[in-house]
């Protein structure tokens, strides 16, 4: 009987005729069949009208998968937006079954066949892609078992090709046969070795460790290069030996002199300790400004700062002071004695503001020092003049307490105390030279030629009748090199030229007692100042015979100095322990500062302005050097437009 | 040279407020000290560690740089350490004269 079912759309009724295998009675069959023809409605069938039933619905069969999504979108990075995909996979997989069929010519199949012992010949006959496998009939089981065993052994030759009518092995029915052999009793055997020695190693890889390693590597390479260069030149063997000996010596030295290595560090530490002790002074020096100056109008004050003293310089008088041009915190002080009867030793000391408790350099001398000067460019050369008429040059860079050059009677030393030395510009051969002036009336130029001091007399200062004049001070003009002034013990000031050895250009009747200091103004080319033991300080214009200004200080004036920052400011020290500071721009008749800086009995001998800082140092006859900070009123500088020169000119009185 | 350094150290020890000085060699062993043994060992040991760390910090930032001085200021005193050629010079000074 046939099975038949058909459907016309989902809306239509389903008619199906059942199939019966076994034959039935005709009459029953008819009944059944007729019954089968009547419509059997399922209970949930849709009720539709005739028109609706006859409606035809067209169905289009397409190859598309109805379950495949139609609206897949993918993000397009090019367009930065979501784009629908046009082609969607339409394959619908209904059924998947993994089969176990092998292509007969593939590797796997061949291997299997080789295992089973089937010759390849048989399969050539079959040829096609289907694999034939045989099933052994049950009757032949026993015989085949043996054969299977044979085939199971891998080294059986029968498994390979060549035999035509080979019994095909049975893969399913086989039995295993085994036999137990005697097992040898196991025995353990071992030996223990000593563990290799271990040590812990740890290191830190810092940036500087890496850098150091590279630097070492570089140095090794350079040494290798040098060695390679040295090998061809065999003459260097001797030098190498000497070099090696030197190296060994150096090493032994450095091992023994442990402390030498720390010279620099200890020096700085000493300064640090001093800074802690005198920390206030350092801060004052830098930052303190006397505010009361605003209310005081014109007057100013001096703030005492460091006090410098040295054991070796006790009881000696400060006879010379000089600031170093290159290192502005370093100054030199020469100690000796002005007293004829108390002549003894002297000492040259160098102090720095950074360490006020001990000098940087000390040079003890046999004879008292009267004057000193530090070279402007070569700041380690110091020229010193002694009471016994000698001059000497010290080199600060050299070790040792002796001067590098010293004049002797043979080389033309003075016969009287040397009152002033001054470095000059290098001469045409490039040698350093300086001038010295002494009470024996000679102005001598000394030149440093190689290892010697060569002297040349420049001028012999004489007066009518008197063979020689006793000079006490001199000063060279700042701009005009060959012009200089000489002050004498008699109170006269002479203006001379280096080149004119016999005549003075001009003589000024300056003072009644010895002229202790003459100084040219730093700014004005015509003005100079002089001070004397006759209690006065006078300011001159060198073209005019009479002084422009005269100041009475009521005590013998030891020294006078122009300020380096203003053409109208100068300072003077007197033997009663006072410092007087004048500013001609502010007050033409009186000092703007008169301060007692030391005990009344102590005489002040020298004063110097610092070139950069608002600081003055004052030396006295007890061997102390005191430093003071100038208050703002004392430091008035000209404004930029108005030059210092014009300031002084304005102040100078009109001369008819 | 050595005597000058010795003199400088003596001067430092004589300054106002200075408690003492210690000089250590490259291994951290004190070779010269003005303090007693216990204090010397303590200062040497502790400051050695500190300077090694400080030196490492300075050189880590710039390997071509190196530590020269270290100043440690506390309420009561100031410890100053100078480094040169692997040697350490330590000065302890009291503040508040």
TrEMBL record, chain A:
<dbReference type="Pfam" id="PF00400">
    <property type="entry name" value="WD40"/>
</dbReference>
<keyword id="KW-0853">WD repeat</keyword>
<dbReference type="GO" id="GO:0045503">
    <property type="term" value="F:dynein light chain binding"/>
</dbReference>
<keyword id="KW-0966">Cell projection</keyword>
<dbReference type="InterPro" id="IPR036322">
    <property type="entry name" value="WD40_repeat_dom_sf"/>
</dbReference>
<keyword id="KW-0493">Microtubule</keyword>
<dbReference type="InterPro" id="IPR015943">
    <property type="entry name" value="WD40/YVTN_repeat-like_dom_sf"/>
</dbReference>
<dbReference type="GO" id="GO:0045504">
    <property type="term" value="F:dynein heavy chain binding"/>
</dbReference>
<feature type="repeat" description="WD">
    <location>
        <begin position="508"/>
        <end position="541"/>
    </location>
</feature>
<feature type="region of interest" description="Disordered">
    <location>
        <begin position="137"/>
        <end position="169"/>
    </location>
</feature>
<keyword id="KW-0505">Motor protein</keyword>
<feature type="compositionally biased region" description="Basic and acidic residues">
    <location>
        <begin position="222"/>
        <end position="236"/>
    </location>
</feature>
<keyword id="KW-0677">Repeat</keyword>
<comment type="subunit">
    <text>Consists of at least two heavy chains and a number of intermediate and light chains. Interacts with BICD2. Interacts with CFAP45 and CFAP52. Interacts with CFAP53.</text>
</comment>
<feature type="compositionally biased region" description="Acidic residues">
    <location>
        <begin position="141"/>
        <end position="153"/>
    </location>
</feature>
<dbReference type="GO" id="GO:0036157">
    <property type="term" value="C:outer dynein arm"/>
</dbReference>
<protein>
    <recommendedName>
        <fullName>Dynein axonemal intermediate chain 1</fullName>
    </recommendedName>
</protein>
<dbReference type="GO" id="GO:0003341">
    <property type="term" value="P:cilium movement"/>
</dbReference>
<dbReference type="GO" id="GO:0036158">
    <property type="term" value="P:outer dynein arm assembly"/>
</dbReference>
<keyword id="KW-0243">Dynein</keyword>
<dbReference type="InterPro" id="IPR050687">
    <property type="entry name" value="Dynein_IC"/>
</dbReference>
<comment type="similarity">
    <text>Belongs to the dynein intermediate chain family.</text>
</comment>
<dbReference type="GO" id="GO:0007368">
    <property type="term" value="P:determination of left/right symmetry"/>
</dbReference>
<dbReference type="InterPro" id="IPR001680">
    <property type="entry name" value="WD40_rpt"/>
</dbReference>
<dbReference type="GO" id="GO:0005874">
    <property type="term" value="C:microtubule"/>
</dbReference>
<keyword id="KW-0206">Cytoskeleton</keyword>
<keyword id="KW-0963">Cytoplasm</keyword>
<feature type="region of interest" description="Disordered">
    <location>
        <begin position="222"/>
        <end position="244"/>
    </location>
</feature>
<comment type="function">
    <text>Part of the dynein complex of respiratory cilia.</text>
</comment>
């Amino acid at each position: 009987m046939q099975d038949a079912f058909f459907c016309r759309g989902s809306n239509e009724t389903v008619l199906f005729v059942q199939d019966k295998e076994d034959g039935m009675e005709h009459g029953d069959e008819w009944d059944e069949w007729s019954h089968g023809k009547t419509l059997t409605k399922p209970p949930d069938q849709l009720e539709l009208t005739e028109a609706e039933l006859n409606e035809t619905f067209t169905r289009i069969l397409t190859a598309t998968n109805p379950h495949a999504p139609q609206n897949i979108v993918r993000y397009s990075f090019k367009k930065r937006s979501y784009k629908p995909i046009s082609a969607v996979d339409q394959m619908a997989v209904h059924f998947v079954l993994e089969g176990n069929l092998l292509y007969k010519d593939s590797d796997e199949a061949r291997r299997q066949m080789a295992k089973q012992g089937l010759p390849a010949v048989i399969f050539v006959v079959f040829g096609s892609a289907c694999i034939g496998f045989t099933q052994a009939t049950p009757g032949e089981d026993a015989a085949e078992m043996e054969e299977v065993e044979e085939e199971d052994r891998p080294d059986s030759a029968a498994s390979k090709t060549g035999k035509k009518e080979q019994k095909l092995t049975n893969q399913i029915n086989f039995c295993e046969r085994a036999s137990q052999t005697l097992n040898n009793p196991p025995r353990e055997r071992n030996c223990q070795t000593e563990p290799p020695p271990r040590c812990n190693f740890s290191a830190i890889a810092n940036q500087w460790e890496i850098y150091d390693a590279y630097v070492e590597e570089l140095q090794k390479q350079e040494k290798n290069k040098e060695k390679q260069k040295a090998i061809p030149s065999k003459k260097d063997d001797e030098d190498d030996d000497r070099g090696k000996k030197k190296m060994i010596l150096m090493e032994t030295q450095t091992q023994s002199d442990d402390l030498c290595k720390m010279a620099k560090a200890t020096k700085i530490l000493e300064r640090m300790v001093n800074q802690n002790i005198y920390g206030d002074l350092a801060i004052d020096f830098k930052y303190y400004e006397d505010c009361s100056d605003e209310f005081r109008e014109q007057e100013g004050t001096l703030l005492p700062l460091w006090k410098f003293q040295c054991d070796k310089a006790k009881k000696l008088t400060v006879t010379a002071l000089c600031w170093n041009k290159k290192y502005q915190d370093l100054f030199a002080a020469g100690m000796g004695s002005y007293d004829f009867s108390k002549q003894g030793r002297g000492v040259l000391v160098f102090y720095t503001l950074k360490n006020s408790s001990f000098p940087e350099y000390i040079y003890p001398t046999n004879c008292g020092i009267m004057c000193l000067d530090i070279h402007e460019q070569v700041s380690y050369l110091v020229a010193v003049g002694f009471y016994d008429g000698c001059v000497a040059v010290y080199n600060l860079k050299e070790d040792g307490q002796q001067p590098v050059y010293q004049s002797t009677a043979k080389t033309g030393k003075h016969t009287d105390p040397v009152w002033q030395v001054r470095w000059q510009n290098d001469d045409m051969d490039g040698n350093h030279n300086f001038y010295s002036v002494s009470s024996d009336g000679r102005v001598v130029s000394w030149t440093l030629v190689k290892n010697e001091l060569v002297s040349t007399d420049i001028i012999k200062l004489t007066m009518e009748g008197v063979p020689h004049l006793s000079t006490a001070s001199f000063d060279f003009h700042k701009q005009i090199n060959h012009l200089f002034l000489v002050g004498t013990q008699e109170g006269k000031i002479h203006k001379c030229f280096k080149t004119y050895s016999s005549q003075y250009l001009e003589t000024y009747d300056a003072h009644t007692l010895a002229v202790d200091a003459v100084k040219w103004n730093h700014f004005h080319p015509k003005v100079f100042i002089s001070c004397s033991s006759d209690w006065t300080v006078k300011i001159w214009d060198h073209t005019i015979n009479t002084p422009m200004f005269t100041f009475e200080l009521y005590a013998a004036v030891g020294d006078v100095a122009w300020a380096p920052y203003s053409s109208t400011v100068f300072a003077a020290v007197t033997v009663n322990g006072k410092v007087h500071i004048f500013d001609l721009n502010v007050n033409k008749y009186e000092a703007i500062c008169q301060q007692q800086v030391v005990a009344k009995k102590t005489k002040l001998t020298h004063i110097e302005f610092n070139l950069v800082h608002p600081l003055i140092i004052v030396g006295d006859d007890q061997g102390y050097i005191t430093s003071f900070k100038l208050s703002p009123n004392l430091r008035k500088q000209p404004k930029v437009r108005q030059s210092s020169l014009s300031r002084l000119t304005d102040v100078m009185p009109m001369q008819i | 040279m050595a005597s000058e350094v010795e003199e400088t150290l003596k001067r430092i020890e004589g300054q106002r407020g200075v408690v003492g000085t210690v000089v250590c060699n490259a291994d951290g062993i004190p070779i010269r000290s003005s303090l007693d043994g216990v204090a010397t060992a303590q200062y040497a040991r502790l400051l050695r560690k500190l300077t090694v760390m400080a030196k490492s910090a300075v050189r880590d930032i710039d390997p071509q740089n190196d530590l020269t001085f270290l100043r440690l200021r506390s309420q009561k005193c100031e410890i100053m350490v100078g480094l040169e050629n692997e040697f350490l010079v330590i000065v302890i000074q009291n503040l508040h004269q």
